[in-house]
Write a structure and sequence with these properties.
The chain has one helix at residues 9-20; strands at residues 26-28, 32-34, 36-37, 43-61, 65-74, 79-80, 82-87, 99-101, 109-113, 116-136, 149-150, 154-162, 172-179, 185-194, 197-203, 206-215, 218-223, 238-246, 251-260. By secondary structure, the protein is mainly β. The chain starts with 8 loop residues before the first helix and ends with a strand. The strands form three sheets. Strands 1, 2, 3, 4, 5, 6, 7, 8, 9 and 10 form a ten-stranded mixed beta sheet that branches. Helix content is 5%, strand content 56%. Strand 3 (36-37) and strand 4 form a beta hairpin. The longest helix is centred in the first third of the chain and has 12 residues, at 9-20.
Length: 261
């Protein structure tokens, strides 16, 4: 992963998509189908079915991180996005809803995943291809404030994974950092996945907690400032905490670094 960006995975995806399209079509007639494994470790399927319906494609994830799913459906004269969902080894949905993948418009489904076996559910397609790419992401961050992971000032930063799960429990990531000078605080945040992630900071200047932002598949820089005048504001010295919360049953990966100005 790049130091501040979680979007570097796209370069791998584009290359893999080109290679996948070089393979021929296959005709299948089952509802549970293993995907072919490319030498890079990515999975692909390119085939034609006798009838449209629901198909489950098995994928083994060797590394905790992000699972990117892309693909395309084909009609007689055109192509279109396909409907996909992520299921566990028992074919139970681990995401709240379906996603739509279309490599032509660079629309992908991003899932936070732990090691294990998953199935990608494809619905309503006869002629399509499917791609799954697993990218390892260092999984740091405490599950609660008392176990927050320490992040030093600078550009190195820290990443964390909030995996897809059938459990309904609330999932959080906590990070801790120490401000030793009264200066303007700059936070660098990235989030990639299905669904939004909310970032909230706590500390001497934000005793009740301050919600910085809620977003998905984006990276942003935030500077401490006066909420009324929108001018930069120095923060007090002390220990601060960043809490990352997933909205609903979203999953993905986040990145955080900070500095002072």
């Amino acid at each position: 992963m790049e130091k501040r960006r979680l979007g570097g995975l796209l370069k791998t995806v584009v290359l893999t998509l080109v290679m996948v399209l070089l393979f021929g079509m296959t005709t299948m007639a089952a509802t549970k189908v293993n995907m072919n494994k490319y030498k890079t470790g990515s999975y692909y399927y390119n085939g034609v079915w006798e009838t449209s319906g629901t198909v489950y494609h098995k994928v083994t994830v060797p590394k905790t991180g992000i699972l990117l799913v892309s693909g395309k459906g084909y009609d007689e004269y055109s192509s279109h996005k396909i409907k996909v969902a992520l299921c566990d080894k028992n074919l139970k949905l681990v995401e709240k809803s379906y996603s739509y993948a279309d490599d032509d418009s660079e629309k992908y489904a991003w899932y936070g995943v732990s090691k294990g076996t998953y199935y990608i559910k494809v619905t309503g397609e006869k002629d399509y291809f499917l791609l799954a790419v697993n990218q390892k992401v260092a999984n740091k961050g405490g599950a609660k404030k008392s176990s927050a992971a320490t992040v030093k000032k600078g550009k190195t930063g820290i990443s964390g994974v909030i995996p897809a799960s059938t459990k309904k429990t609330k999932t959080e990531k906590w990070y801790k950092f120490k401000v030793t000078q009264s200066k303007v605080l700059v936070l660098y945040l990235s989030a990639i996945g299905n669904g939004k992630f909310t970032f909230t900071v706590y500390g001497p200047s934000y005793s009740k907690g301050f919600k910085i932002a809620s977003f998905m598949n984006d990276d942003r820089d935030f500077t401490s400032g006066n909420v009324y005048t929108r001018t930069p504001m120095r923060v007090k010295k002390g220990t601060y905490y960043l809490k990352v919360t997933r909205n609903s049953k979203s999953s993905g990966a986040v990145f955080f670094s900070w500095t002072l100005q």
